[in-house]
Hints:
Number of helices: 5
Radius of gyration: 22 Å
Amino acid sequence: MVIRLELHRFTNVLASVFVGARDELWPLWQQRHFSQGQLSQFSFYLCAVLGFFMLGLWACRRHDTQYLWFGASSLCWSVPMLYMAVSYAPIRHDWFLVLTLIGINFYAVTAIRFLHRLLKIELPNVEGWHLSLITAVSFIELFASAKLIMPLSLLADMISLIVLLNVLRLCCSAAMCTNSSVPPAAIPGSGLAPTCSLHFR
């Protein structure tokens, strides 16, 4: 039995230890190895390949920025998948965890921008504020203590969730505009233009 314990400012990396007969514990180990190792490793390779492929498409079609943001979001999501897949962190575990959380933060930014391009929603001010807030939170996470890192991650998640809910609100307003005979300007708080499109400003 080999037990490895590393203490850093956030967490240790000691997984749960099962003690018992080998024949009884072998299926549990296989299940954990598949769910935490092989599946995450496959997801990492898939996200990385898909991300670079989409960035290659964007390089050939610069006007289609949805390829750019989809590729960027795939690469950002490959970071937490790498964190789950590797047996030993390539750098100090505390810094690896921070980079993973920052990758998740920017995954939300790039994924929401991809949704905006896909749905043809134009919200440059919202996108700018979203990027600024997530960048600020991510910068603070680099130097935060162990007690603050999780609240900061939750704060970043809440900011992205608010932006995502705004996208859903706009889509619902557009659906109301399409299915209703009421003029778009008469729908309170919809912010819809009289043309009833998804080009919001």
